[in-house]
Amino acid sequence: MAESVGRRRVLGYGLTTGGLALVGAAAAMEPGTASVTAARPPSEALAGVVSETVSGRVGRSLARPPEPPEPEAFDVTPAQRVLERLLPEHAGQIRLHAAAADDGVDRYRISAPAQPSDPYAVVVEGTSTSALLAGAGWYLKYVAGVTVSLPGDSVALLAERLPSPSTVLAGAAAVPHRFALNDTEHGYAGPYRSWADWERTLDVLALHGCNEVLVAAGHDEVYRRVFAEFGYRPEDVDGWIPAPAYQPWWLLGNVQALGGSADPATRQAGVDVVRRIVDRLRELGLTPVLPGYAGLVPGGFASRNPGAAVIPQGDWGGYQRPDWLDTRDPLYARIAESFFRHQADLYGLSTAYKMDLLHEGGRAAGVPLGAAAVAVMTALQTARPGAAWVMLGWQDNPRREVLDALRGCASAVCAGQRVLVVDGCSDKFETFDREDDWGGTSYAFGTITDFGGRSLLGANAAVWTARFPKALSRPGSALSGTAWLPEASGHDPAAFELFTELAWRADPVDLADWFERYAARRYGRPDAAAAQAWRVFSQTAYSLPAGKYTQAQDSLFSAWPDLSATTAASGGPAMRYDGAAFQGAVLRLLQADPALRAADAYRYDVVDFTRQALANHARVLLPEIKDAYVTRNLDGYRRLTGRWLDAMRLLDTLLATDERFLLGTFLRSGGYDARSLITTWGDREASKALRNYGGRELAGLVADVYLPRWRKHFAAYETVVTGAVEELAATDWFAMDDAWARAATRYPTAATGDPFAAANAVAAFLTAF
Q1: What's phi and psi for 16, nearest 5 deg?
Q2: DSSP category for residue 113
Q3: What pTM, to 2 d.p., does this model score?
Q4: 19 has which bridge partners?
Q5: DSSP state string for 455-472
Q6: What share of the chain is helix, strand, coil (3-state, %, to 5)?
Q7: 366-402 pLDDT, tens per residue?
C-alpha cells in the first residue's frame, strides 16, 4: 500500500506481442472469457515475451528470452534469503533479477538461463520483491512440480538439479492489494508463537504473492504508553488490557480485562517478536498493516478527563465492552496523536491502518457515525498523510453512512482512494454485489475459511473461481484486491494455495485441472492414487456452495456432550458434503506410492485428512447412539459408545505423530488464557455462546478434555438405558473445562509414533463399521 488504494486495472495473463496482456476496465469481459489487449511492457527486462494462456494455463513462449538488464532496479537480497530459508539445498540455482516498472504493476518473468553451462537452472525477474517471490513460487509449482505452503512442503522430492523451464512464463498481479491475516490471528493461531514460527509464515505468504499483512499483536504496549499521558497509572492500564490470547478482541472493542495481565517479561518478548515481524515485512517490500486508533478508552476516562464524551458500549458475548470516546471530541485528536507517535516509536511507520467503528455491535448513542468516521480519517491523515484506512467487511461493517461520509468530505482529508474494505464474506451469500453495498468503495475479495482455528477442511472454492474474475471484469469495478482472512492461519493448505493464486490470474480457473495439478505438486510427483483422492476432495469438501457459510462443519468430538449435537461451536454448519465419498478418498490417499512419504506435505495431509474422516464418522455414529439410547437398546448403546470412545483414542494417537497437531505446540508458554480460549472462551456466561468456538483436534486436548467429557456423558446415560435411574442431573461441563484450563499441566512439543501406521489403523477402524 505504498501507493493510494486505487481501483486501477492491472495486467493479467494473455497473448500479446509486446509482453503481458492488459485485462482492463475499458474492455468488458463476459463471464468465463478473457478480454485481452496489447500492453507496453514496464521495462526492457520484461519485453520480448509472448506468453499464451488457455483456461488458466500459461503456454509456451514464442520469442527468444531477452538478456537481463543491468543494474538491478532494487535489491534482490531479501527475496534471495527467503528462498535460502525455504529451499536451503536449491536456492543457489535460482537467479533473481530486479526489473524496473513504470506503471506500478507487479510482474514476473520466468526463463531458462542464457547458456546451458550457466550454474543457474532458472532466472526469475520481477518488478518488486513481491513479484519476484510470486514468480519463484509459480516456478516451483508449475515447473519444478513442488509446493511450499501453510503448512507442509514437498521440497524433499526435488532433484539435485532443478529443472529449467522449457518456455518463458510471464505473469502479473490481477489486483494491486493481496491482503493476508485476520484480526484474530494472534489469538486463534497461537498467541505465544516464536519468531521462527512467524518467519516461516511470512516467508510463505510472500512466496504466494501476498503484499499486505495485518500485524495487530504487540499494541498493548502502545496503549500503556498512550494512557500514561491521560491520567492512568500503569496498574490501571494493566487491569484493563486482557491477556495476550484475548487481545485481538480487545483491539476490536469487544472485551476488556479478560484472562489476567501478562508479566513484563512476556510483554517485552511479544514486543520484540512484533518488531521483527514488521522489520521483515519492510525488508521484503511488503506493507505491515497496523492497527489505527478509533476511540477505545479505559474505564474512568471521563473522571480523569472531565467533559470527555465517553459512550459505554454495553456487552459482547457476555463481556463488558471497552468504552468508546466520541471521535468528534477534541480529546480524540490528542489521543490519536499520542497513539501514532508511540506506535511509530515501537514499530515504525506504515501506509495502511486497520480500524473498525463499533465492530459487531456497540452503541453510537446518537453520534452520527459518518461524522465520527471523518474525525478518525482526519486524525489518520494528520499523523500519516496519504495512509489508507483498512476496514473489515463483516456483518454490518462498514456501515454505508461511514463510506458515504468519507467519499463526501474534503478531498485533503478523505480522498476516495484512501479506504480499502477487506471483505470477509465475498463467498458467503447467494448474491454478491459489493459495488452496490459499498457505493463504489475499493474492496478486496476475501474469505474466512476457518473460524476459531477449528479443525476444518473445505471451502467454497467454486464460488471463488466464478465470482472473482466476473467481479474483476465488471466495467468500473471497485475490486482492487484479495483478502485471505481465516481466523487462524496454518490450516487447509489447498484452500490457501488456490485462493492466493486468484490475485495472479485474470482468467477463470478450471478447478478439475487445478486440483489434479495440485495433487502432483503437493506431494512432489504425480501419483494415481493421490490424484483420484484429490478428485473426490475437490468434488466434496472443496465444492461447498454459497448461501450461509464460508467454512465446513466442525468436529462433534469437541462438542459439549449432547446426543442431538450437530455442531461443536454455536451457529456452525451441519455436514456440508458427502462424508462417505470423502472417506473413500482418504482411504485412496493412503494407498499412494510409499515414496511420497518423503514429502512433508504428504505426511501432514495423511494426518489431517484421516483426522477429518474420523471426525466425519462421529456424525454417523451419534444418531445411532441416540437411537439406541431412546429405544433402551443396552447392547447397541454399549457397542456404539465404545466405538465412539475408541475413535477418540485412535484420533489422539494419530494427532500425536505430527508436532503441528500437538496441544503443546499451540500452547507454547501460554497459560490459562490460551487454554480457555480453545475451550470455555473465558467465564461461565461467555461459555453459553462461545464455548468450543476455538476448539480444535490436538493431541492432548482430545485425550484430556474431549474424551473425559464424552466418557462421563455416556456412563451417565447408560444408567438410564439400564433403568437404574429415570432422570439425570445436568452435568457442569463448564466446571470441568475451567478446571483443566486453570491447571498447569505441560504438554509435549515433540511428535511420537508413525503417522502412516496410525492412519492405517484408523482406516481399518473405519472400514470395519
Answers
A1: -155, 165
A2: -
A3: 0.91
A4: none
A5: ------HHHHHHHHHHHH
A6: 45, 10, 45
A7: 999 999 999 999 999 999 999 999 999 999 999 999 9
